[in-house]
Design brief:
The relative contact order is 0.08. The chain has 1 helix and 33 strands. The longest helix is centred in the N-terminal third of the chain and has 24 residues. A hairpin with a 5-residue loop joins strand 4 and strand 5. It is mainly beta and 499 residues long. The radius of gyration is 42 Å and the shape is flat. Strands 1, 2, 3, 4, 5, 6, 11, 14 and 15 form a 9-stranded antiparallel sheet that branches. The chain folds into 2 domains: 194 residues, Beta-galactosidase, Chain A, domain 5; 179 residues, no CATH class.
Amino acid sequence: MRASNGIQLWSPGHKTNVGAKACFSTLLILLTVFGFTSGLPTKLGGTVALNNPDTTGCATTFALPYSPQGTSQPECPPTTDNQTSTQPRTVGADQPPNLSLPKTVISGIDNLTTDGGVVENSPDNLTLYNNRLAVRLLGNPVPHDMIIGIDKAPLNSSALWQVQVNQGDSWIPMSATSNSFHVLGTNSTGSSVVRTMTLENGQISGVLSIAYKALSTGPLKWNLEFTPNSTAQYRFVYHWNDSDITPDSQPISSTLTVSHGAANYTLSWDDVPPSMNTTLALNPGEALLITNIGTLVAGATARLDPQLLDSGPSQATAHTPQRKAVYDSKGGYYYVFYYDGMQLRYASSNNGVFWAWSYMPNGWPSWNDMYSSPPSVYNSGPTIIVATGMNSNPTFNCQSAPCLGIGQAYLYYAVGISTAGTIAWESNNGQIVQIATAISRPCYNTTSSCSESLALRNVSVAFAANGNPAFSYNFYASGPATPGTESATPAGPLRAISE
């Protein structure tokens, strides 16, 4: 029971405890309010500037449908790093990282150095080619060009650019007293060779430079430059000797076409300026394309750039079996074998995008025809074997009748080891290119000459159970011979299987 008139004494710390409880309650209320409002999107005065140490004078904005209009600051640029932000830039999650997903890779070897090249048989015997045509360039003692047919045999067709000088109203040819070749090489646009000749006629002389370029697009382009030592009237003359040229071979729109079997060879001068007055003269077995230079002073240079193209089929790329591919699963490299128009090349790649190419080793036969030349390629791990046939057309001339000759056809192969995108070709008795088998066939005729055709076609190669290469092929023969006189001669321990 409490007395009403009791005396209350002072208690130390009584008001301090009351104040502490009030401050603590107020702090809890403030923390609750601040924690609730910080999660709401707001826009004060148009924008809310966040603390961005890398950006000056910019603000990251949060828009609300009912936010008031106001003056906004420049927006901050997006971040370029992959770090997760510590402050929200928009309502919701951060942007996903830049993922690098797998993509489909379409492989091809079209970006390799284009088909074509130069074969240097000697300083005075070069063959310039692409996958459409080939021209043999011959030097001393009689400079001229020879067109090579689709079977890589010279056609009965030769030609050369000449310069004629006008003397006493007569055009006199200037004879070549020297000839030299300079191979410029092969790139993505084609293969190039420069022929330089010194021409003379009496006291008049000059230098004729002929730049040949077998373009990757097919045509053979010439760029002619002639510089005389005397002022006179000159003209360029393209002298084309071909048994299929007749006076009835009518040019069409600055072009002349001569047919050789399945191929058509067209001489075109449609890019020669009309001011140079170009004419064509046709005689039995020859065509003369004449382009007037006019009066050319000593030391000046006249230029011309016509072209020759083949409109026949490209034998090196026209048929599917002529490109073969294998994969070295141990080394992780693809190898593609293909003809560039005359020679067999191979290219390697470990990703199907970037390719490096190389030629087959010396001694590998050049392109013959679409039946014998396509390679057969087989690999077992890093060991790669390549095989091909050949086509032979010998003619035997005897002193008297009857005539007997022996023709042969060969099957070639080479074995190599794949090493990091290159092939180390194995040598046997100093020879990398080996002969697997040789087939002999006599050619017999009652006259003093005999001709025949021999071919090993449709060659296929694999490894037998004992580890040795095994071959299959088709033997073709045509020409006069005594039946049943063919013989096959295997080379070494290899086994030849005839279909």
